Amino acid sequence: MGTGQVTEANPYDMALAQYDGAVKHLALKRGIEDYLRVPKRELTVNFPVRMDDHTVKIFTGYRVHHSTARGPTKGGIRYHPGVTLDEVRALAMWMTWKCAVLNLPYGGAKGGVVCDPKRLSLQELENLTRRYATEISVLMSPEGDIPAPDVNTTPQIMAWIMDTYSMHRGYPVPAVVTGKPVPVGGSLGRAEATGRGVMVSTREALAQLNLPLRGARVAVQGFGNVGSVSAGLLHAAGARVVAVSDSRGGTRHPEGLDPRALVRHKRESGRLDDYPGGESITNEGLLASDCDVLIPAALEQQITAANAERVRARLVVEGANGPTTPEADAILAARGVLVVPDILANAGGVVVSYFEWVQDLQAFFWSEEEINERLERLMVRAFLEVGATARDKGVDLRTAALVRAIERVAEAIMILGIYP
Ligand code: NAD
Q1: Neighbours of 168 (CB within 10 A)
Q2: Which residues of the chain have pLDDT under 70?
Q3: Of all protein residues, whose CA lies closest to atom 31 belonging to ligand 1?
Q4: So what's the pLDDT on residue 8?
Q5: Catalytic site positions
C-alpha cells in the first residue's frame, strides 16, 4: 500500500499509507494493527426522493463506522457528486484518529450522499436529507453514532436530521446530531469552531517557527465554513489574508484582503474570482501563492506530487481533511515546510460538537466564552502533546499525531478485550 499512483488516486489508500507509516513507530500486536486498518461497519443505502417535477430519483448514500473502541462514533455527512465509499472510509478513519488525538470519548464515522446540492431545490434537499436520515437511523443514535456537518451540509440540514429522528421516537432527541442551529439545541461557537481551531493551530505553529502572527501572509483554499471562518479569525488576529479561492477560482491582493467583504461578495455574486478588490487567480495559482501560511480548506488530495514543489509557504495548516498526499508530504518535509496535519489542525469542529452533545445530554447550556476557552485549552494541549511526541520520536507532526491517536485506540482495545 501507499505507493505512487495509487495513493494519489484514492483517499482510502492514502489514509492506509499514513497509517502504515505511523504504526512502524509503535510496537502494536499484529491483530490490533490489522483490526484498525479496516472499518468496523459500512452501510450503503439506495433510496428514492420525490423531486419538484413529481419524478422520483434514486440516490446513493453511505455511513461508515471505523472504530467504536473509545466511544460512540462521530463524524460529518458530506453531500457532493464525487462522494465514494472509499472517500467515506478514509474520512471515517481520520475521524477515529482526530477524536483520539484530542482525547474525546468517541470513535470515528463519516457519511455521504452522492448528489450535487447546487442542483437541488430547498424542498428536494429536505426530502433527500429526511430520507437519508431515516435510512441510516439503523446506525444513528445519541448513544451510538452522532453525525455533524461536512462539505455542503449546513445547520439547517442537521436540524432536519434531528427532526426526522425525533419524529420516529416521538420526542425531541437533540443529541443525535451536532452542528444544529442554536434554537434547537445547537451550541454557541459551533459554527466557527473548526476555523477557530485552525486559527489556534496556526498561531501555535508560527510561534514554534519564531514567526509573528501579526503581519503573517495567509492564503486559503476553499471559502466555505472552514476557510471563510479561518480567514476571518486570522485577519482579526492581525494576519494578512493575501489570497482565497473556491471551486471556481479565487482572488489575491499582496497587501491583504478583507474576509468580511469577501463573504459579502461571495453571497451576492456566488463567486470570488470576480472580486473587484483583488486580482483573479486559479486554484493552482492559489496553492503556489507567495505567502507564509497556506491553509487548504476545500477537499482532499489538493497538494500532490505534481504541485508540492511550487508551494511557497513556510507553514501548511490543514483545514480540510486529507488535503496533502503522502508523496506531497515527503516533498514538503524535504523542503522544510512545516505541516500541521488535519487530525490536529481542524479538530476544533469535533471538539465543539462534543461540547454540543454534552450540553444536549445534560439539557444545560454553556456561554460562548466558556466554549471558546475550553476549545482553546483542548487545542493547545493537543498541539503541545503532538509536538512533544514529534521531538521524542524524531518524526513529523502528522506521524506524531497518528502515533498518539493509534496508541490511545489500541490501549482501549487491549483493555476491552475481544468478545466473545
Ligand atoms: P463547505 O462546503 O462549507 O466549503 C467547501 C469550500 O471548498 C467551498 O467554498 C467550495 O467552493 C470549495 N471548493 C470545493 N472544491 C474546491 C476546489 N477544487 N478548489 C478550491 N475550492 C474548492 O465545507 P467545509 O465544511 O468548510 O469543509 C471543508 C473541508 O474541511 C473538508 O475537507 C471537510 O471535511 C473539512 N472539515 C470540515 C469541518 C466542519 O466543521 N465543517 C470540520 C473539520 C474538517
Answers
A1: 10
A2: 1-8
A3: 320
A4: 52
A5: 110
Q: Supply the DSSP symbol for 239.
A: -
Residue type, 235: H
CA distance 361 to 376: 22
pLDDT value of position 5: 40
Residue 67 three-state SS: coil
Q: Pick the closest to residue 343 from 366, 318, 365 (CA basis).
A: 318
From ligand 1's centre to the CA of 228, what distance in Å? 10
The domains found in the chain, sorted by start residue, are 39-178 (3.40.50.10860), 192-345 (3.40.50.720)
CA gap 296, 309 in Å, rounded: 16
Q: Is the CB of residue 198 less than 8 Å from the CB of residue 176?
A: no
Element (H, E) at 103: none
Closest by CA position to 305, among listed 4, 70, 102: 4
Task: Please name which of 377, 375, 309, 389 lies closest in space to residue 341, comparing C-alpha atoms.
Answer: 389
Round to whole Å and give the CA distance between 35 and 25.
17
Q: Which residues line ligand 1 (CB under 6 A)?
A: 149-152, 194, 221-227, 245-247, 283, 297-299, 319-321, 346, 349
Residue by residue, DSSP assigns 185-236 as TPPTTHHHHHHHHHHHHHHHHHHHTT--STT-EEEEE--SHHHHHHHHHHHH
* CA atoms of 46 and 33, how far apart (whole Å): 32
Cβ atoms of residues 366 and 359 within 8 Å: yes
Q: Show the beta-strand stretches assigned E in 125-175.
A: 145-149
**Those residues with Cβ within 8 angstroms of residue 389's Cβ, 6 or more apart along the chain or in another chain:** 395, 400, 401, 403, 404
- Ligand 1 closest atom vs CA 193: 40
> d(Cα 265, Cα 356) in Å, to the nearest integer?
31
Can you give 359-403 as a three-state secondary structure string?
HHHHCCCCCHHHHHHHHHHHHHHHHHHHHHHHHHHCCCHHHHHHH
